[in-house]
Design a protein that fits this description.
Length: about 70
């Protein structure tokens, strides 16, 4: 059963970017969505706290894993 999480459009856009490219960096997301990196960092932290997203591996060589697909 899919858990319903109310998310803002920005969080969904970030998840879509990660879904299409799990090794994408926060800087690349910020550039593609025309945002500041800090906004992306804040949003990713929120997604991690919601239990939707986690980082696997190191910051440099790791990748993003969507734990629960809420899109």
């Amino acid at each position: 059963q899919k858990r319903r999480i109310k998310m803002k459009k920005l969080l969904k856009k970030i998840l879509e970017k990660i879904l299409s490219n799990p090794i994408i960096t926060q800087i690349e997301i910020a550039e593609q969505l025309n945002l500041h990196r800090v906004s992306v960092t804040r949003s990713i932290t929120k997604l991690q706290k919601l239990g939707v997203l986690k980082r696997v591996g190191s910051n440099k060589t790791g990748y993003w894993e969507i734990i629960e697909n809420v899109l």
